[in-house]
Amino acid sequence: MSIHRSSIAAPAEGTAAHVDLIKQSHERCAALGLTRIERPDYEPLMRSDLNDARERNRKLFAHAAPVMELLLEQIAGTQSMIVLCDAHGTILHSVGDEEFLTRAGKVALSPGVNWAEHSKGTNAIGTALFAERPTLVHADEHFMHANQFLTCSAAPIFDPRGNMLGVLDVSADQRTYHQHTMGLVRMSARMIENHWLNDHCANRLRLHFHSRPEFIGTLLEGIVVVGADGKLVGANRSALDQLGISGVALRNQTLSTLFGTTVAAVVDHFRSPLALPMKLMLPDGRQFLANARMDWASLAFAAVPAGAPALEIPAAPATAQGLAPQAPAFADATIPAPPPGALPTGLAYLQTGDPQIEVVVQKARRIINRDIPLLILGETGTGKELLAHAVHQESNRAKQPFVAVNCASIPESLIEAELFGYEEGAFTGARRKGATGRIVQANGGTLFLDEIGDMPLPLQARLLRVLQERCVTPLGSGKSIAVDIAVIGATHRNLREMIQRGEFREDLYYRLNGLVLRLPPLRERSDLPVVAQRILANECPQGAPRISADVMALFQHCDWPGNIRQLANVLRTAAVMAAGEPQITQAHLSDDFLEDVRRLAQQQAAAAHAAMAQPQAAVAPAALSMPLPPGGAAAPFGAAFAPATAVPPSMAAAYGAAVGVPQPGPAGFMPPAAPPAPSARTLHEQEIAMIQAALDAAGGNISEASKRLGISRNTIYRKLRWNRQDGDAT
């Protein structure tokens, strides 16, 4: 429904509940020390921080973006904008009329800016976050005068377990207020929630129900998610409204206790391609009709009780009921989890042929279920959370929660409340009824503390006490809660150096590092082709395209500063661009990635030339253990940079041309190579000669030689080791 200015009317006087909501919000803002004439904060997050926030909320954006575009069509021409925020109030994305987006930017209503109440006072986004309910804030109801030209309608977005995912908001000029805007926002938020539920629980049984069959398949339908043992593990808000129970109460129910049926009975009912909706009855006598949906091909219900009918259900029933099989969705991790049955799971999923990773996996297996803390070190994007989750999956705690906390992404002022929880009224701005901390949420399972090196010192002392006493005391409470958790920490920082500088507690360090595992960066691993294909297999479960030889050559020579996370992002884009084509080519790669690779290739070529020139000037030829290639020429571009899983020499030689780097010649980076004489060395011998020369020039310093050559230390070790093995063989 489009909104036209002719239908604009001033908002009716608010209900008593609305007036009370705004009054309480204003009181909170005053208590926070905010003033109504305060100048808006124009400092958004740095681009890198905003990108990190968007990456953490990638699934939310993926489900919200199409709904936002649909909503934009409904409110086009009304001087308004649509805003998506994360659970902390940071704006992730906005769309709307260009003129109004410019006006909104003057009060910092733009991506990267936080609109929680403590930052922007009373506003629909921040107040909806606090109240956890749809909120309208119109004109002078905004606490800050600068925002009073706005009328804003916001609705929170929840996951199937009732956890806040973010907020959807429509903001407009207060003169264009329309009473139906809030209804559109609420419907859109529920649409996002339903998309999230259907995607996140694609490999679980879901019952879509309503008392009137014509409402099944609409926004009014209720959806409940059923575990393999018949327990109800989640639901959308329409289901809770129809059943008249809370999310917590629902998760204490089973199919049998609430609906009077079993998983086996549901499966048996929908075995027929022409099955009609199933009748369900509540204990109070109310009746519903339901359709069942799940990824029938994956058949995740291996744990159906003994005696249940065999689960040999073809995909046809789903199609006949309009329930096309869906690809399973997985937790957001560095490498997406594999489709059921297609790839190994747990630690076996990490075994891709790299010897360093194999050592990590074998060490991790030895401590599982031994109550030994694990500390994972590695650069950003190397897959620390994926390793932690794999350890959890193989432990006795696999059926209990895996709770991940990124200590670097939570504001310092909030991390204590986030970890330990708090009671109602514990501090200004605390949610009504308090909140359960992440540590208590992980009870019985695993607590993963990512970027533990970024945790403030005062909190380190509290965390140490929790780990020692296995008890948590929420803020504002005098009662301790006993917890049983396995703790896995991770960081990219050097904790020993931080201890020396007084930035990290030594006693906490030794409490966390029962076993320390270091994940190598992608540039030092030998399994890049396997990792790349595994990522593609998850991005394209219906049939992944192959990676062409020239693209793999680019990948092999890329430095991958973002490690596996960067590789996954590159492949995700390429897979979309190559949809329907048999292989990924350079045409499917983003321009910025190609530019980065081209720049790196130029730097490596220049470094190789400099490394060759320096030893000739500084070291007498007799001092070199191996002479340079004939004519003093450098090896062809790419020869010295062959990866662990080496590509054919012809491919390596073609690499420079593939990315637009000039090849050796009069105008190139290196002296022209003389035509190979009959006694010329092989490409492998030229590589070894160049590496040995750089090592001699650096006085045997591996790190210095690797910098001069532009290759990793591991590559140097590997090349020299292979050379010794070849020599022994001959």
Your description of this structure?
- The protein is 39% helix and 13% strand.
- Helix 21 crosses helix 24 (649-658), helix 23 (591-618) packs across helix 26 and helix 25 crosses helix 26 (702-709).
- The protein folds into four domains: 5-190, Beta-Lactamase, CATH 3.30.450.40; 201-320, Beta-Lactamase (2-Layer Sandwich), CATH 3.30.450; 368-520, Rossmann fold (3-Layer(aba) Sandwich), CATH 3.40.50; 595-665 and 680-729, no CATH class.
- The longest helix is centred in the last third of the chain and has 28 residues, at 591-618.
- The protein has 27 helices and 19 strands.
- The strands form five sheets. Strands 2-1-5-4-3 form a five-stranded antiparallel beta sheet, sandwiched between helices.
- It has 730 residues and is of the alpha/beta class.
Map the helices and strands.
Blueprint: H1 16-31, H2 47-56, H3 58-74, E1 80-86, E2 91-96, H4 98-105, H5 117-120, H6 124-131, E3 135-138, E4 150-158, E5 164-173, H7 181-200, E6 205-210, E7 222-226, E8 232-235, H8 237-243, H9 247-250, H10 255-259, H11 263-269, E9 278-281, E10 287-293, H12 316-320, H13 355-367, E11 374-377, H14 384-393, E12 402-406, H15 412-420, H16 438-441, E13 446-450, H17 457-469, E14 471-472, E15 481-482, E16 486-491, H18 495-500, H19 506-512, E17 515-518, H20 528-539, E18 546-547, H21 549-557, H22 563-577, E19 583-584, H23 591-618, H24 649-658, H25 683-697, H26 702-709, H27 713-729
Parallel strand pairs: 11-16, 11-17, 12-13, 13-16, 18-19
Antiparallel strand pairs: 1-2, 1-5, 3-4, 4-5, 6-7, 6-10, 7-8, 9-10, 14-15
Helix pairs in contact: 3-7, 20-22, 21-24, 23-25, 23-26, 25-26
